Amino acid sequence: MARAASQPRPLEFYGPPRGLRSREIITGVEGRGRVRLPESLSGAGAAPIEFLDIRRLRVRLPQHTPPGDYSAQLETDSQSYPVALSVEPYESLKASGDLLFEARPGRAADAELSLSNRGNVSSDIPESCDYWLFEQRSLEDAVIHTFHEKTADPEKLFGILLKRLRDATGGRSKCRVTAGSGPLAPGAERVVKLRAFLPKQLTPERSYVGLMTLGPMYQGITVHVTKNERGSKK
Q1: Radius of gyration (Cα) for the chain, nearest Å?
Q2: Residue 140: is its pLDDT beyond 80?
Q3: Distance, C-alpha 134 to centroid of its chain
């Protein structure tokens, strides 16, 4: 249902800070516009800017804008409209750099990862997490061999690919956060230290790729398996 923007009821927008969208199809807003933010968002820990662009009836607030309901004003080239902003919680933990572990099968390996909270709520970095591994070469071979199968049946092809992927797995294992666990505030950064325990069935002098669940995020990892003591810990 469309509603004319000239009506006195505030125009309602909802969603995460970087993508609030209107609850209704709104007509009558012409030209470029900006949202004048309330004074409550100009204090410590809130948005340091005052004006934002309106594009296709979407409002983009600073990514760390706290969750809550805000009254604002939409100003265009010729008119002004009351606006109600409903900012939803948005959790976003991001990592910079690659995560590489190197050790012998059955041993532990240490690595560091820089994390930043790009959301608007605190993210909890756990004390431990899980990860899965696949042999890098076998993962590529599984896709290539499935592609060259004679059958064109999608279900059979998927079954073949799934079997090859299961055969290529290096198993599931644990990783411990030895330093840096705990809540991370919006906008904050932290370097965490990780200790991964490599499965005993890994083949020496092979490389594995995998996926680690670290709180609300998934992080790709690489594991180089060695024959010597380099990079390992008892």
Answers
A1: 25
A2: no
A3: 22
